[in-house]
Amino acid sequence: MRQSSVISRRVAAAAVSLVLATGAAACAGPEDTGAEGGTSGKAAGAPRKGGTLTVLNAEAQTDFDPARLYTSGGGNVPSLVFRTLTTRNREAGAAGTEVVPDLATDIGRPNKDATEWTYTLKDGLKFEDGTPITSADVKYGIERSFAAELSGGAPYLRDWLIGGDTYEGPYKDKKGLASIVTPDAKTIVFKLRKPEGEFPFVATQTQFTPVPKAKDNGAAYEEHPVSSGPYKVVRNENDGERLVLERNEHWSPGTDEERKAYPDRIDVRSGLDEAVINQRLATSSGVDASAVTTDTNLGPAELAQVGSDKALAARVGTGHFGFTNYLAFNPKVKPFDNPKVRQAISYAINRTSVVNAAGGSALAEPATTFLPEQKSFGFTPYDHFPAGRTGDPEKARQLLEEAGFPDGLKITLLHSTAQNRATSPEIATAVQEALGKAGITVELDGQQPNSFNEKRWSVKDAPGFFLSRWGADWPAGGPFLAPIFDGRQIVANGSNYNHAQLNDPAVNKEIDEINKLTDLKAAAARWGALDKKIGEQALDVPLFHPVYKRLVGKNVKNVVISDWTGVLDISQVSVK
């Protein structure tokens, strides 16, 4: 399976962390007062153990099996039950983009060319029944994620592990995957078919959760998965619509520096209307005073209401997740094969009107780079087609004339009909109006979400001009640039994310060279330079990076949000 297939479920997936980063289902929570933009965390008093944390969500926490979940950094609710070899640093802001050890003693020890990674488990690790966690349990947990009946998780290992592309899981292949070696109960070694310096990021995903083979009952495992984290599942109704977690008495905080696990109980209630969720959090009566949400943002109208209430505003925080909304070109379709036409559109865009259509400056930040504005991604500032905040229609007209269109041109823009303020009619209309001032007549083609995605992800049927968006599986340049610009990831018969169908040997080579680096800071600098270089070709027009606003109940304390997920981290929250 190609790495480009990794985000095939990004918009619709039930997987916690990544789903939360998109549109109406975006997950970003209030930041701690120690981070930029803070909220009520410290002002409300020191965190204490005890009580019940209620989670009010629109979407159910489905497929609660570590093999089937598609998460980054271990996820949010899943991370309370499932520990992984590595995890995200549970700190606010940029510090939260770092990989840190979880079950393992370190983030991994690579060989010279990063084709082999070795991990050692900590002492004293136990499952919820008190039995020791071994390297064989981690190996088995990963292997079962290859089973067809447990599909849904991140498929990186299918592409990265030797033999991963043909392995069908332990139910069909009892011998197991030879490229995962467990020489003893504490050691696990991964043998890769190519250098992967960002392997520690992948080791944060829930597929790296240990699963005791004797307790595996296949597809039914999600009903009561065996916990390795601070909480265990005591109730799972209607495939995650109601999920109740209570303390795992065999979890040792001495082995877990990341999860605070203050509440005694976590009660996740889903299937709620988003407006109702925000109203309940705002009112904060009864159990809602100790409630949060992991999938519901405040909208423009709600933010206006919050702005006039200081007490309410104190319970709202800001989250950032590595995500870019952009205009995509397919240069295989005329007139977008002409670089000057693409440049003209780049100059004509009015980012102020686009930001306003996305909900205003509180919910969107203008973008001129493809990479998000975070150091972990390798963000390198550039604006190859500077048009100010409102566009430069005169420069656009000049380029159109040079391109052979002195009287302007007519084009069609594909967009979604979903009201997500990302690929929706509001954004499309803002683009249409801006290009109209430059002599470019834009006809809007609104499609239902499924049809829209099928077209923009198709090599055969992709139009020349459409709205798109991209979010990374972890906070680094690799999963952001490679699926979009690596020519070897063009998928002819499936979901293709390389919209421009760029297959530049120099770009492909640089991606390979960066993947060899295990120094993540050095790799970030190279990703930033590559982004800037690709940007010169005007293969896309970055529009904005989303910003997330989130309410919490009045009794919620120690609210922390990192730049890894843009998510309120449940493992840090206190409700007393």
From TrEMBL:
Signal sequence bounds: 1-28
Cross-referenced InterPro entries: Peptide/Ni-bd (IPR030678), SBP_5 (IPR039424), SBP_5_dom (IPR000914)
Which CDD domains does the entry mention? PBP2_clavulanate_OppA2 (cd08506)
- Tell me the PROSITE patterns matching this sequence: PROKAR_LIPOPROTEIN
UniProt keyword Cell cycle present: no
Describe the location of the Solute-binding protein family domain by residue ranges: 98-488
Which superkingdom heads the taxonomic lineage of this protein's source? Bacteria
Q: Which Pfam families match?
A: SBP_bac_5 (PF00496)
Q: Which UniProt keywords apply?
A: Signal
Q: What is this protein called?
A: ABC transporter substrate-binding protein
Q: Which organism is it from?
A: Streptomyces zaomyceticus
